[in-house]
């Protein structure tokens, strides 16, 4: 990041950048507090899911006209770009992207005579056959935070549903995960696992497969076993969840024109590629697909190939309430305190209220 700042200051006339950082969970709150105190930055990098709340707050500058004049909107993957669209306006530019896929322990699958699964039925069968002793066939995160929801939403979408049809399709997705636990293929402890915990289980070979993102690859390259990555298995349709960050400008800034110059500069391939490589991130731009480490690394290329079908969590300013309802439903089902049908129905009422349905 220091290199990027130095590059910007050298490449954009009359710019000096003062960098401030916050813990991930605090950033959005600090921006909101800054709006009250009058201490807002000119430019910021925010998680893409924060566009739900920040986008409806009138804090972010409308970049629609600038983007039209810039003429590079069509260079971005659909999911990341749509994640910056709020109320018909462009309120950000994708900075980097990621999504979820399925990691497989190559030897374990070979020994069990199992091919990497491509459908839910194949996933359930493979997870059952790969479960042995203290080793589970599959590991995933179902923790009661956005991290768990990030991992659950692909199942909802793969079933053919969305948040507005949660009573039906949410029940289908919850039933699938509940069945995995009932068969012993997935540990009920997943309700307390972060995605890092999941990766640790996979690294310790106590899970034959895991659902996770590309940020785990640097650690996995040190693993004492061979592994591969495949697309998330599908049900009615293929889907994965979009993660990543966006650049945004603050509407209150007196330096919006100069901040836009900075933002535009960061998107130049000569600047963006080394930045993404240094962070181990994937590009949100299609025209960078054949540059950087992701062009030759098979695992990174797999994740990159999934970005066109990665969906943003773009549901409006009360998404946090809807997300909490999803999380509560998953926790209730996987801990055995509610049936999938009952939990999905309860969550659907809360989701509809949050999203104005």
TrEMBL record:
Entries under Pfam families matching the protein: SBP_bac_8
UniProt cross-references to SUPFAM superfamilies, sorted A to Z: Periplasmic binding protein-like II (SSF53850)
Keywords, sorted A to Z: Signal, Transport
Superkingdom as given in the UniProt entry: Bacteria
InterPro entries per UniProt: SBP (IPR006059)
Transmembrane regions listed in the UniProt entry: none
Keyword Signal listed: yes
Family to which the UniProt record says this protein belongs: Belongs to the bacterial solute-binding protein 1 family.
Entry-linked PANTHER family: MALTOSE-BINDING PERIPLASMIC PROTEIN (PTHR30061), MALTOSE_MALTODEXTRIN-BINDING PERIPLASMIC PROTEIN (PTHR30061:SF50)
Record's protein name: Sugar ABC transporter substrate-binding protein
Organism the protein comes from: Streptomyces shaanxiensis
